[in-house]
Request: fold
Amino acid sequence: MRKGREMQVLRAADHRRMAWKNGGGETTEVAVSPPDAGLGDFDWRVSMARVETDGPFSGFDGIDRTLAVLDGAGLILSVEGREPAELLGQSEPLAFPADLPTRAMLIAGPITDLNVMTRRGRLQHRLYRHELDGAAELPVAAETVLLLCHSGELLVTSSGETARLGPLDAAIVGPEALRVEGKARFYVAAIGRDVSV
Reply:
């Protein structure tokens, strides 16, 4: 998705909308690799989804998934073999195998979530939630790093390039130190063959 180490900016207006795998709603695809991959053959995928009713999550064989709540009161996530987990907007992202039966129960109305998925055995990932008011250097230790601005405005500098991100804009950057400035809530997805967990 990038040529060399160039930054790639993904504007919110250009994100692709598509139906859920199980047909129960709509998802907004922020980025996928390879770029032309479908739901059955991606190496990694970052997307957002609007969840308006209680119900099962789509299953993805051989996929590891991390979920964060962007907007709304939150949900209770029940993954087979685990205790139900409460996931709120201020919660740390929750990682789980996407091929285990999973069901969501909304706490108080619809939510929008952020999903990061990688194909098990090929790649790993971590998703981090950040609040910023000022400037910070973020160490990056992954082959691919995707930053999503959730709210506010963010100035992102990587490899000598700078981009300004507004709400739901994203940027894919290389594996160098990342500088961010502004007042914003944002998420960083680190994706690679060996991402420390």
